[in-house]
Design a protein that fits this description.
Layout: H1 11-37, H2 43-52, H3 54-82, H4 87-119, H5 127-130, H6 135-162, H7 164-174, H8 179-201, H9 206-212, H10 214-217, H11 219-229
């Protein structure tokens, strides 16, 4: 069986499959749940929706946890792919692109757990301490937890951008991936950093900047599709004759 058809013999395709799984997990909590459950400017409706669709909200929390685990395996697969190109950049990719964003995912789950607990009135054994808050106050607390999650995503966007710099540099230097993808990834990284700073300092313009940055944000999709479809095989580094025993 050729390496093009066997993912175990094609490190690039392994990366592509992990990347595809991450892309499939992301929209549930990032896009679908906010669109279905959150009502802009209406804390009472948001809290009621979360309480009424508690299992959907829990699946969003699970997707964040599972996404963090997938992210760790993804960056380790990237390390295997790129360690022969530049090991220091590959290690930086693992730290900035895997370890740190995964920790933010776990913190996001804590924020969502708080929102769910307050929306449901505390659940088993928890209603007593929440009884000091009236309904409007509990609704406001739910919205606070939801907004905290949003700001944690804004903070994570800096890491989503920064990890693309070493990834882009490694792809550009690798010679087994197209150089234009490396350049595109770096542009994608700049776009994420700009989005993060816009969300922190100019939140009113965040949607506009997001729309304008769409062409740049397809850089990750480009490398994911390339690796899934074509894969990548780094050249085998042959042992130097001088290092072989006489």
């Amino acid at each position: 069986m050729s390496s093009a058809r066997n993912p175990a013999r094609n490190p690039g395709r392994v990366v592509g499959y992990w990347y595809l799984l991450l892309v499939l997990l992301g929209p549930l909590r990032l896009i679908y749940i906010p669109n279905k459950l959150f009502v802009e400017g209406n804390a009472a409706a948001t809290a009621s929706n979360i309480a009424a669709h508690a299992w959907l909200f829990r699946f969003g929390m699970l997707s964040d946890l599972f996404g963090a685990v997938v992210l760790i395996f993804l960056v380790l697969a990237f390390y295997r792919l790129f360690k022969g190109v530049d090991q220091q950049l590959a290690v930086l990719l693992v730290i900035v692109g895997g370890v740190m964003p995964a920790l933010i995912n776990f913190v996001n789950v804590v924020s969502d757990a708080g929102a769910l607990m307050v929306a449901r009135g505390g659940g088993a054994g928890g209603a007593d301490f929440l009884s000091v808050f009236d309904k409007p106050q509990r609704d406001a607390l739910v919205m606070l937890f939801v907004r905290l999650h949003d700001y944690q995503i804004v903070a994570a966007e800096i890491l989503w951008g920064l990890w693309l710099f070493p990834m882009g540099a490694l792809a550009y230097q690798s010679r087994f991936l197209p150089r234009f993808i490396g350049v595109w990834l770096i542009i994608n990284g700049v776009a994420y950093v700009v989005l993060s700073f816009t969300g922190l300092f100019f939140p009113d313009y965040q949607n506009t900047v997001f729309i304008l940055s769409q062409p740049a944000l397809f850089g990750e999709l480009a490398i994911m599709l390339w690796l899934v479809i074509k894969g990548a095989n780094p050249p085998v580094v042959e042992q130097s004759p001088a290092s072989t025993p006489a």
